[in-house]
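Annual report, structural modelling task.

Input specification for the pyridoxal-5'-phosphate complex:
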Amino acid sequence: MSVSQPYNSWVEVDVSVLAANIRALRSALSPQSQVIFVVKSNAYGHNLQATAREAAAAGIRWFGVAHLHEALAIRAIIPHVNILVMGAVDPQQASLLARENITPMIMGAEHGEAIAAVARQAGVKVEGHLKVDTGMGRLGVLWQDAVATYRFLSQQDGLSLTGLCSHFAAVEPRQPERAETQVERFLEAADAIEAMHEGPLMKHISSSRAISYHKEWDFDAVRPGICLYGYGASDPAMRFQTRPVLQWKCRVMQVKDVPADFPVGYYGTYKTEAPTRMAILSAGYADGYHRALSNRGHVLIRGRRCRVIGRVSMNWITVDVGQVGDVAAGDEAVLIGQQGSESVWAGELARICRTIPYEILVGIHSQAPRSLHAHNVESELDYINWGQLLPEPTDTPRAT
Ligand SMILES: Cc1ncc(COP(=O)(O)O)c(C=O)c1O
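The model returned the following structure:
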């Protein structure tokens, strides 16, 4: 009794929630702080191009990505926004960066010098933001070397440093010292650099957690990711609140009644206590539904929470629908999202899997189709195909 279906599972991105989240953040910031919306890793699983396009329509003028190919994917559809590549770009790509008006983070003297040399040879100039490692222990020049590095790079034709940035290792309001130390190191370097620098220097350090609590660290720009997708910013004590943008769904493939003491799935790790009805769903760990949710997760069917029973297998999940009523093959099952008054968000799955919502979101298989959806204009926008929506590139001039 299986149902025919085009996909195992699919993702619905609610563009009205995304726009509301952007408005909520924007209204908490002072007008001079730019928002660099972090859309790396396929916009945290939401679909890069669609998210970027919707965010640009909602007023976002800067995007942050990890890799050059992501920057080019945005540039292909939005000619006029600024794009910051937060990973170390290959210096050989300097002319492409200049031609496509893409801003790399400069990771140190050697990286900047190599980019400048390639740019000079091509007769172009790359604008970059110097990345300072103030205590994250990842990419960037160590804070003690930041001023000397700036001085050296500012003498390199082919490269113009227009920004200075860093990244927090931990922002913990009850133990603020670690983040405060990073800010002190950042500002000490920034003050010395600004004294030498001609023209504006865009300073940015805060991502979602810092933005949620620390207005004083907004500086010239902030780099939010997860809060704009609706996670980590629901607490009313924070500067602004956001809601989840993405829902992830699949279908009931088969429903069957089983007796008491019936073993379910690999190794029979679950045995029914009483006669019940179970539903087998069209997604599994290959689609990104963690195996750690075996016997522990819940999905929503017909507005009710249904417990995952037995092990999650590669392509299927079994849930107990004994309490739900008339579940039928073809019914929609919500893996992440809301149905009626019930909801299961990525935070709940992350807690069970002992991970973070980021990993749950980016773990949804990239081939699961993403579709636009808007709560307030559902009939018009529901299930629109991305291909129909991507605008033709235009000749609109870019912001400088
Ligand atoms: C350098 C950098 N900036 C900003 C962000 C956005 O962080 P968040 O999603 O916590 O706002 C990230 C995410 O990992 C990052 O690596």
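The two ends are 59 Å apart (CA to CA).
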